[in-house]
Amino acid sequence: MLHYSIAVIPGDGIGPEVMNEGLKVLRAIEESHGGIRFAHDVMDWNCTYYLTHGRMMPENGLELLKDYDLILLGAVGAPGVPDHVSVWELILPIRRTFQQYVNLRPVKLLRGLESPLRYKGHADLDFVVVRENTEGEYSNMGGRIHQGTPYEMAVQNNVFTRYGTERILKYAYSLAEKRPKKRVTAATKSNGINHSMPFWDEIVGEISKEHPGIETNLYHIDALAAYFITRPETFDVVVASNLFGDILTDLGAAIVGGLGLAPSGNINPERKYPSMFEPIHGSAPDIAGKGIANPIAQIWSLSMMMDHLDLPDISAVIMNAIEGVLLEGKVLTPDLGGKATTRELGDEIVRHIYQ
Ligand code: GGG
C-alpha cells in the first residue's frame, strides 16, 4: 500500500471551492485504484486567520508542514488584506523554506478546447514554463523612506545568485532533454536590466554548452511575450526568472483558454522537502461564493502531483477524465462557455475517473 500525507491549505475566495473538487478527485483515485492512500489534514491558514491572529499561519506552521509528503494549496488573498501580506506570509515562505525552486507551469491546449487564438494544432500547443521560484525580483530586499513627503521613495533590489541561476537552468535543460522538441527558450532583458540579466545570459550560455543536443533561444521578455501570441507552437521549455515567469504564465493561460486551466507545481527536485501543488490563479473575490469557478486548474495540479510521485498512470487517469469531460462539452463552467457549477464540473470529472 502506497501512503502519502498531504497538508491541504484551501485558502481564500474560490480556493476552498476548487479545493473541494480536488479532494473529491483524490478520494475517487483511492477508491478506484486500490493500494494508494492520501491522508490529508486541512489547515485554515488564510486571510480570515490573518485578521484574527495577525499572521497567515501559526508560528510553527512551516515546522508542521515539514512532516508532510506534499502540500496542496488553493488560492490566497482577500479584500482588506494587502496582497503582498498573503503572498509574503504564506506562499513565499513555503516555497523558500522547502527549496521549491522550480515552479513548473504547463501551457497545454487540452483536447476538447479551442484556443482563443483559434489555434488549430492541439498536438503542438504544449510547452512548459520553468519559473525560478526562490529569488530574482521577489527579493524582499529594499525599503521605503520619506513616507508622506514629496521625497518619498521605494527601492526593491533583485537578487540573482550563481547557485540559484545555475540550478534552475540545469533543471530546464534536463527537462528539455526528455521532451520532443529539444529546445530551451530563456527570457532575458539584458538590454535594459544591465547587471542581473547579462549575468543570467552568461549562465544560460554556460549551461547550454553542457547540452549540445538542445537548441537554445534567448529572447528579451517583451519580444517573447509577443511570440507567445504569434508563434506559441515553437516553444518546448521556456525558462524565466521569478517575475518574468509569473507574467508569462498568465499569458500562457490566456492562450489555452484562461486561468481556470493553468496548474502549477512548486517543486523541490531533490525531494528533500515537500513540494506544493496549486492552481496559478488567485482567490478571485469577484466570483467567490457564486459556485462558478473552474476547478480544472486545481484538479490538473493533482495530476502534476502524481507525476512528481512517479505515478504516471494515475496522472494520465486524471488528465483523461478532464479531457473526456471537455470533449463531451456538456458540463462546463461559464468561463468555458457553459452553465455548470464548480461542483457539477468536479462531479463529472470524478464520474469519468470511475468509468
Ligand atoms: N494559487 C495560489 C495563489 O493564490 N496565487 C496568487 C499569486 O499571485 N501568487 C503569487 C505568485 O505565484 O508569485
- Principal-axis shape equals globular
What is the CATH superfamily label of the largest domain? Answer: Isopropylmalate Dehydrogenase
Bound molecules: glycylglycylglycine
Binned strand content: 15-25%
Alpha-carbon Rg, integer: 20 Å
Count of strand segments: 12
Top-tier CATH class of the largest domain? Alpha Beta
Number of helical runs?
11
Q: What is the annotated CATH architecture of the largest domain? A: 3-Layer(aba) Sandwich
Distance between the termini: 23 Å
Largest sheet: 10 strands, mixed
Helix content: 40-55%
- Named CATH topology of the largest domain: Isopropylmalate Dehydrogenase
Rounded mean pLDDT score: 96
The helix/strand order is EHEHHEHEEEEHEHEHEHEEHHH
Judged by helices, strands and strand pairing, the structural class is alpha/beta
Q: Trace the largest sheet across and list its strands.
A: 2-1-3-12-11-4-5-10-8-9
